[in-house]
Design brief:
It contains nine helices and no strands. With about 170 residues, it is mostly helical.
């Protein structure tokens, strides 16, 4: 699914991907989006033939940028959304998603967030990890650090797969 979404966004931004700044902008936007995040950004960067180090930095910054906003403001936003009929189903869905993942995170705390964010699987990432941390009322500074380390881990894993580094090592 991630690959299809990445391909879609590369097509949407095709007009700007002819330049280095256009490629970086495309990768930045993709990496900032929920669900796709850094995983998709690294795939897009590899497809656009962006330098690995540059791609890593752009993806990392874009993916970590929303985290403080999620940690500090998501509860306020969700409480507001609960009172509006059109948004209440979304909030219920998010509550269920948090409830499903809550046990894994609570058991391991800080390291649970690091691993949840860092292992690039569907439904994991900085957005969801930060949402869970906020809903569990974790210390925001610790949660941000855990998300930052997790995004770093996810970036390394995705660089290995997206850029074929594994082929060079083996």
């Amino acid at each position: 699914m991630t690959e299809k979404l990445v391909s879609f966004f590369i097509t949407v931004f095709a007009g700007i991907t002819g330049t280095e700044i256009g490629k970086c902008t495309t990768v930045f936007i993709i990496s900032m989006l929920p669900i796709i995040e850094l995983r998709g950004g690294m795939i897009a960067a590899a497809l656009l033939k962006l330098n690995l180090i540059k791609a890593f930095v752009v993806c990392y910054i874009a993916n970590i940028l929303p985290v403080p906003f999620i940690l500090w403001f998501i509860r306020i936003i969700l409480n507001w959304m609960r009172n509006i009929k059109i948004f209440s189903k979304i909030v219920k869905w998010l509550d269920k998603k948090v409830e499903d993942k809550k046990g894994q995170i609570e058991k391991y705390g800080f390291w649970g967030i690091v691993l949840f964010v860092g292992i690039p699987l569907p439904g994991t990432g900085a957005w969801t990890g930060s949402l869970i941390a906020a809903m569990l009322d974790m210390d925001k500074k610790k949660a941000f650090l855990a998300a930052a380390i997790g995004v770093l881990l996810a970036g390394v894993i995705m660089a290995i797969f997206s850029y074929g580094i594994l082929d060079l090592i083996i």
